[in-house]
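Bench notes, bay 3.
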Amino acid sequence: MARDVALGLKEAQRMVDIIGRPEDQVGEEERKRIALETVENFAHHINKGFLEYRKSVTEAGEFAVTEWVGQGSILRDALGREYIDALGGFGLYSLGIRHPKVVAAVKAQLDRSPQYSQEMLDPLRAHLGKVIAAITPGDIQYGFFANSGTEAVEGAMKLAKFYTGKPGFIAMLRGFHGKTLGSLSLMGKSVFRQPLLPLLEGVRHVPFGDADAVEKALAAAKAVGDGIAAVVAEPIQGEAGAIVPPDDFWPRLRELCDHYGVLLIADEVQTGFGRTGTLFGVDHWDVTPDIMCFGKALGGGVVPMSAFFSTPKIWKVMEPNPFMHTTTTGGNPLACAAALAQITVTLGEDLPRQAAEKGDYVLGKLREFQSRFPQILQEVRGKGLLIGMEFPTDEVGFKVAAGLFSRGVLTAGTLTNAQTIRIEPALNISYELLDELLNRLEDTLKSLA
């Protein structure tokens, strides 16, 4: 594409004008044009591969499903087609889309200052740190705010190496921690790793939920003199398909890390803030990690936000030179306002309890479907509203997701296990919508049977 600054200005101004108009002042023809142009722009300026992968294109008919407006657990595309959101932005929308309390807090802060000066002390970031210290287990007290989950994991890895002086990590097969190079080194699936090898050295992978394997890896590393900084795991594996470990796994991880003198990092990016039926995933087993990573739901589904937090003893290494780990936009006032509002909603509306109760309800219904359609729905698992449905093949899983999409339900597979379809809606989704979602799933399974 040849350089054309005048075209750039014209096109930018056109979309800014559309955004600025009330919804009822954007006509049907203009919306159709937006839907068609979006496909064209993805093909020429984002990634053509998405157009073959996204059900919003392959299953949508003449006009691709172009995201337009959402509220709560309902999404509507540019042409007015409605979808029940059972995907929740992969865990982003724990409070639903555009929760009014979070939106109001962000708008109010926007009228004061959208970013910070980098020199003055910013009160919202400090106050959010105090709040997270108050609600996390054990003596977790200090933290650093960033923008995405993978940044939180990268920071946790740096902190562990900095504190222990050791280079290595033990991570879990099928684990997912992000796709920047450090986080990718921890990932437990070759398709994302292999094209980019070599990654960080000294990372050993063991089966998730197998504490004996972790012990053997730690013992072997010690025997040959390989320094291990930390064991890293998700409390419940999200992208692997809502894999719940045995009840003794996390308590034994804590014991093993203490015994071998390595840190324990809990990646709570997807499980944190109520998703699994407790405030944090590790709360199911009353375990306190040395470092916790947060993301996704932290910003209330309104502003990107992540963090990694640790204890005063470990954080001490960051004090002599606080510029050892920095970011320009992480923990900005808008994100902190969103996170503070998110926590008031999560705690005030007792979303962890809601997730636990609704999760039990959905899992019960899904197990009924499993007994009726055993050749299609082979396994159901999860905690709270982090639920996975396992199918015999990737193809069957895609047919289920596509069938749900054609029936107005938004869901998807996972990034490290394509046979699993996730159900990960807002924690405050109504039982009426859950029933409608389940009815449409039942209809999809019947059509495949």
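Next record in the batch:
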Amino acid sequence: MYPRLTINLQKLKNNLDAVAEITKKQGGCSLMIVTKALCADPEMIDLVSRHPAVDFMADSRTRNLKTYAGKAKERGKQTVLLRIPMECELKETVAFADISFNSEPETLKLLNEEAGRQEKTHKVVLMIDLGDLREGIFYQNETEIFAAAELVLKLEHLELYGIAVNLTCYGAIIPKHDNLSLLCQWAEKIENKFGIRLQMISGGNSSSIYLIERGELPEKINNLRLGESFLLGNDTAYGTKLPGTTDDALILEAQIVELKEKPSLPVGEVGVDAFGQKPHYEDRGIIKRAIIAIGRQDTDPDSMEPLDKGVDILGASSDHMILDVTKSEIPYKVGDIVSFKLGYGGMLACATSPYVEKGYLGS
């Protein structure tokens, strides 16, 4: 059935081997693989949990962690909740995550109470905001950072496992030696003030891995959290391909439901489309237009690249995507399949949509 997201497991394993080589052997960091972009797909989870280089498996949703926490534990992987836990999911957080990322004192207190009820010690990583302005205690607020660390150390059922930063995802701030050195300085301050040793200083996600190749990752950083670099082979700071990786482990296939020659410019007054946007159209004359049975409900047209270089994506509504196939050397007909490589947004949407089937290659 189509549309279908085909996952090449052998290529994913090759990508995982490659990022593990960079992260662990070259960078001396532990490896946390983030599973959220494929919604903790069971075949991908099996691959990751079996890989000897993976130390942690992480997701932003407790529902996903619940599906694989037992398998991860059996195979020696610690599970991590990346998103700050909601109060309504603290029971699941303690049950299925060995570690969670946190920044709010009240949440920490409630997390401690829940860990006590479950007779567990829950590990906490404090988030420090170095300027990307997503989650974390702002790095200039010394009082708040020390207070949060002290609170975790005092709470009976929590362990202060480390500190971490997130960059690039919201503010698009690129990790550099200078800003990541601030995280290292905070690790040293916390360790010196409280006489402890933090187990994890996590220097970010797939946008930080390029620093290893440049020899610019601060020495005290000892963990990276990798999702897109593993799945798509990307260094997300500058969009370059990482050595040994491929960007076509995930292929979206969709079926043509209409194929007609029509004008390239709509006829009449242009208003707004179904998503409230006023579109711009290029006059290409009369073109051969294919409609494929997928749309914005299932994917991101701006995050797709046709494998056939003679195909252009013109736009999409919720469940139709319009292609210009005029220049293609393939004699398309109704019922034929058009294939696409995906960027992060397209991959995330396809993996989330219940209308996109999944298929697998390799093992």
